[in-house]
Every structure is written in structure tokens, then in C-alpha cells.
Please model this.
Amino acid sequence: MLSAEALSALSLSVKVAALAMAIALPLALFAGYALARWRFPGKGLVTVLVYLPLVLPPVVTGYLLLIIFGPNGAIGRWLEQGFGLVLAFRWTGAALAAGVMAFPLLVRPIALAFAAVDKRLEDAAGTLGAKPVTVFVTLTLPLAGPGIFAGVALGFAKALGEFGATITFAANIPGETRTLALAVHTALQRPDGDVLAIGLSLVALSVGALAVGLSEFAAARIRRGRNA
Amino acid sequence: MDRRTLLLSMSLAPAFALLAGRPAAASGEILRIATASSLAAAAEDLGAAFTQATGIKTIVIAASSSTLARQIAGGAAADVFLSANREWANWLAGKARLSADSLQVFAGNRLVLALPAGASIEAAGLEDSLDALKNSRIATGDPQHVPLGFYARDALQHQGLWDAVRPRLLPADNAAAALRLVASGQVAAGIVYASDAHAADLNIAYVFPPADPPIAYVAGLVSAAPAGSRFLAFLSGAAAQPVLCRHGLSLPEDRPC
Model:
């Protein structure tokens, strides 16, 4: 059976990753579409910013988040004073860190998927009288579906296991920000923590295997649906 | 050999020496001191004084005593271990990675409730201070493994405040990380070592009474290198005491500074 500690860490990880995805997905759809379809000034800079978390050391990303969104940060102070919203050292902050880290993995397949949608189909729908929003929702989005799904699967997995940015920005508070990855890390700091670390690692292993299995299953379903 | 080849071989020589596991220059012995993070600055100074007295170079490796104990048990290279509590030193001795006979208490410390420099609260005493800070988390060592966290838990339990404070703790990986959280103003308060609070110029809101058993820094031999035993002798000698006192640490057996 799962220990209370493992259960708390697991449910927190799922909660954090779910919130991260809920916030990141709409932004990633927008960013992916913009990068795939639009030309605008500063596109190079936006591209760099979007993919930066992929190549930065996660601890640097966490530190930058702390500087910007921390209690002494410009945006952090503004959010706290204006909206009573505190992110640093909260589970919502862990979700922000996970979302930022997962963002490039989310955007990449989505942008590729949008780029692969045949523009002529959209133009045809337009000449038949469909409004741009209708074209996007009923044509572009479904055609880009597999790519979007791949991005979400990848991003969710990344958010579930994020470590460096999370511990730096949201710290390691039991029940609040101690996700599965942080719980394993903590167990590994304890001289007597091996049993706990192995138990937690097995949980992470099962969750990971389950996630990959589910996404493969869903991808197969999508392929079959298209060929039918 | 032309000039470019010469420069290249000169610049690569230290790298090859490192790869071969040898120091670049013929500098002789090196003593590796694995130390509790709260002792890092003091250990640097003690190492420098030791080098001056003996010619033996020192390297300080600082982390939580728990982390170090784990790393040493796993085979990490160290000659002496300076632990912030007896527990992790004893644990390592139990694994036969530390000489139990060599264990000695060489310094002590106190706990304080500290606020960032320049911050203040309108409260006296621990309970009132914690009440005045009720919207903030309290940084300290992770009570699951960091000695500072153990001491903080014991001290709060002693005053019947543990259950109230526990959910508000911000557990850090080591004492230095807890100190940083307070010193940088990320949290409004922390339970940290008095020596660290003084060194970081924090505002001290409350000084905990001496713990029972007292906060004890324990030194022990990890390797059989003769430099290790020389360092332990140095640590309990007259030359080390002013260094310990300068870093705000107390001497064992209540000896005055």
C-alpha cells in the first residue's frame, strides 16, 4: 500500500501538473499558432523566449521566477497587493514552475501540427462562407489534434516530474509543494531514507509507465479513427 | 615543438593531471573536510589556519550533515566529517565509514528566531513573535533530516508550540539555505543558528534557551589519512578556539570564548 507521504506527494503532483496544463494549454495553442502561421516583428525573440526553458538549467528558471514572482519581485508584489495572489512557496507556484518548464514541450508539437494543416482547406472553408473562428474550431483544431495531444502528453509528463525550478521557486513544503520528485529528493537527503526513496521511485515508475501507455493507446485510437 | 603546440600542451597539462587524479603542482597532501553548512565559513577559516600551521592544503565540502552522511556512506571522498549533530555522525560510525573512537564535540551553538535585516515586529517572547508573524512561513532546516530542523522541532516541542508552527514551516535542504531564505527576505522569519544570524546581520527576535541535550558539532575521522587526526587535534587545540569564537560558535563544556 502507498504510505501517507507517497499518497500526498502523488496527488499533489497530479494536481500541480493538471493546473499547469490547464493554464499552459490555451497559451501554447496561441503561441503555437502564432509561431506556425503569423509573421510579426520580434518573432525571433518570441521563439527564443518560448523555447528557453528547454535549454536553461531548471534551477536558473526557478531562480528567475523567484526574482520576478517572488515576494520581493515586481510582478510577485503586484499580484499580492492587487489580487492577494501569492505564488512563491505555494502549490500554485509549483504549477507555475511546472507550466513554464513544460511550455516548450507543449508548443513544439502544436506549432508543427498547425504548420502541417493544409492552408487551402481553410481557404476553401472560408470561400464557402465559414467565419475564421468556425474554420479554426471545426477544421484547423481537429486536423492539428494529434499534435496537440502529443504536446499535452509530453507537457503533462514533464510537469508531473519537474524538479529544479519547482524546488527553487516553490520550495519543498510537505503537503503544499512537495511533489513526487521533491519527495524522492528529500528521502535521498536522509541517511535512513532508502526504503522511502525506493517506494516513492516505484510510484513514479508506475505513474510514468501508465502515462506513456495511456498516451500510446490514445494515439493509436486517433490514428485508427482517421483511417476509418 | 612550435609555440602553439607548447601553449596547448601547457594549458592542457593541469587537465590531464586532474584526470590522472593528481594535483597539478607537487603540493603534497590535501585534507578534505566535509562540513555541516552552518559551519562552512568557520571551516574555511579553520582550514586556512590549519594550512598555515602544517602546510597541508584543505578543501571544504559543505552541505547538510544528513546529505553528507549519505554521500560519505555511499563512498564520497572525505577525510574528516564535521556534523551539526551527534545523530548523523553516529549513524555513519554505525556504517563503519567513520571512526567511532575519533568522535569529539568541538563547538556548540544556539537557536534564534530571526527576521531579515531591518525588519522588526511588535512582540516579545516566542509565542507572541510567532503570532505577529502568522501570515508568514517560518524557514528552518527540514525536520525530516537536517540537524537544524531537528533542533528547531525539539525546541518548539519543548515550548509546546510544535503542532502550531509545523504547518507553517518552510523546510530547507540545509541550514545555509534556511538562512538565505530569511536574509534575502523571501520569508519574514526563520529559526536558524545564532552564529548564522549574526554573520548575516539578521534581526534577532527571540533567542531560544540552551537546548538539552545541547546543540553539538561533532568531528570524526572518515579516512585513515594522518592529516585527518592532525586536524582533529588542531580543532580541539588553542589555535582553533579564537576562530570558532569569531564565527559566533560556543566552545564545548561551557568554556568561555
